[in-house]
Design brief:
The protein has one domain. It has no helices and ten strands. The strands form three sheets. A six-stranded mixed β-sheet has the order 2-4-1-6-10-9, with no helix packed on it. A two-stranded parallel sheet has the order 3-5.
Length: 122
Amino acid sequence: MGTLVVTAGPAGAHQPVFVTEADPDPARGPLLEDGSLSFAVYGVVGAPGDTRGVRTRLRVGDPLVVDLLVPALAPEQGLPLDRLPFVVLRAPDGSERRLLPDRRIRFDEPYSRTSYDRIVDL
């Protein structure tokens, strides 16, 4: 399971969004319409090559903040960084930017009492 935190406005309470196998790419995934809100996108990727997608609607000048977190549990804890999920940002013009895992920073989420490792941030 991974959690993608997408923030366009001030970070506060995140609006939860859940993605499943029915959301394999941005065209079929949910639209995060309000760029002034912070969203936490939750999903499970089970096999190499498995994907999930969301779209965002940002206005010119809206900041984009992206964090990818994975549970601080097995099996994720035992995997090397290059076997963990990553993020692909695709611009309206089709250009892409890959955000690959390059760290493990522990984050203890106080409300759910769940520990995550932040593996990607932008």
